[in-house]
Structures are given as C-alpha cells and as structure tokens.
Design brief:
Layout (H helix, E strand, L loop, with lengths): L2 E6 L7 H16 L4 E6 L10 H6 L9 H19 L2 E7 L7 H10 L6 E4 L2 E4 L5 E7 L16 H10 L4 E7 L6 H19 L1
Parallel strand pairs: 1-2, 1-3, 3-6, 6-7
Antiparallel strand pairs: 4-5
Bound molecules: flavin mononucleotide.
The site of flavin mononucleotide (FMN) has 17 residues, from helix 1.
C-alpha cells in the first residue's frame, strides 16, 4: 500500500508535466495494492498568497494566535496534513521564467513551516518530514540539463532546496525538456519521460 500525494501546478490545459505526473501516480498506485492517490490541483484550486497574518503567525504557539492568524494557518495545517499522510510525493511543474509556477511557490510558502516541517537546532535546520520519496516531474521549453542555460535553472534547484530543508531528501527528477523546439521535439521529450516513468514504476 502506498499513499501518493500528486501536486500539479501547470497553468496550461495541455500540460506535459501534469500528463506525465498523472501517469506516474497511476503506475505507482498499481504497483502496490490498496494504494491511494490524493490530487492537490493548484491550478483549479489556487491558494491565496501568504500575507501578514501568515508571516507573523507561522512560528507562534497556537494559544498566542489572533483569529486572522488562526484562519490562515488552517490552510497551512491542512496542506501539511496531506504531506504527512503521504509516503510518496509527486510534484509536477512547468518552468515559468526560469522557476516554478507562482501557485506552486505559494504552496511551498505554506508548507515550509518552522516547528512543523522543520526546526532550528544548534547544528542548523533539521527537517521533520521524514521517510518520504519525492518525484519531481519538470517540463521546460528549452534545455537546462546541459549547455549554457544550465545556470538559469531555478526549477529543480529550488524544489530540491525547499524539500531537503523539510527532510525530504530522497528525490527522483523526471525532466521533459526542449518542448518549445516544435511538436516532434515535444513528443520525443514526453515519450522519453514516459519511458523513465515506466522504468521507475516497474
Ligand atoms: C509564462 C511562461 C513562461 C515560461 N518560461 C519559460 C522559461 O523560462 N524557460 C523555458 O525553458 N520554458 C519556459 N516556458 C515554457 C514552459 O516551460 C513549457 O511550455 C512547459 O511545457 C510548461 O509546462 P507544462 O507543459 O506542464 O505546462 C514558459 C511558458 C510560459 C507559459
């Protein structure tokens, strides 16, 4: 049995990252009997951006929170509950201006929560979300895995940093690159990603 949390974030209806990530979730679920897939669709159900109540309340004890802080932290609690309930987390994202879609950034801002997702120790931050496997399914118009654009890839570098701060360090990346170089290049990139999905889920 596996509890899979699928997080999709593409603004595009014909999203490559969503398609490949859905397939991965389905194949991983088939691999273990009684698996569940919870889908957090950040495009259909966008989160509000964090605000002052969140920024001032995120590290306070519950008994010190104002009603406005409690309300906004309930969003974070709910998202974190989903994350803790999962043993496998799949994050699908297209590259938007060298980084991740803003709805996924808002999601990360809610879950990277001191005292819940990580804590500060004398040796530095310690992640509290342990024992999870994460898959990043990342689509890009250009090529960033090699060549001159590599230095502008803030997509997996950012997600790896945020996840590892929270203790999620077992991360597999599936890239769908060069989709802007025409329909044939896009088909090839999706097909290569699907092959990798099949191999990972085998
Ligand atoms: C607003 C916008 C900005 C984008 N910025 C970049 C970029 O900086 N680099 C890149 O390689 N592709 C960029 N793209 C192309 C997308 O990464 C590409 O279409 C990818 O397939 C999107 O993921 P999706 O198919 O899951 O929607 C951009 C696309 C849009 C719509």
């Amino acid at each position: 049995m596996s509890n899979i949390l699928l997080i999709t974030s593409s603004p595009r209806l014909e999203s490559h990252s969503t398609k490949v990530a859905r397939s991965l979730a389905g194949q991983l679920a088939l691999r273990a009997p009684n698996s569940t897939v919870a889908h957090r669709d950040l495009t259909r159900e966008p989160l509000p951006h964090i605000d002052d109540s969140f920024a001032t309340g995120r590290a306070l004890p519950v008994d010190q929170l104002t009603p406005a802080q409690k309300e906004v932290l309930a969003i974070s609690d709910n998202l974190l509950k989903e994350v803790f309930a999962a043993d496998t987390i799949i994050i699908a994202a297209g590259m938007i201006n060298f980084g991740i879609p803003s709805n996924l950034k808002a999601y990360i801002d809610y879950i990277v929560r001191p005292g819940v997702a990580f804590r500060y120790t004398e040796k530095g931050p310690e992640g509290l979300i342990k024992g999870k496997k994460a898959y990043l399914v990342l689509a890009r118009g250009g090529i960033y895995s090699e060549g001159p654009m590599q230095q502008f890839n803030f997509q997996d570098t950012y997600l790896r940093a945020a996840l590892s701060l929270m203790g999620v360090t077992d991360i597999e990346v599936i890239t769908i690159e060069g989709v802007a170089f025409g329909p044939e290049a896009a088909d090839r990139a999706v097909s290569a990603a699907m092959d990798k999905v099949a191999a990972l889920a085998a």
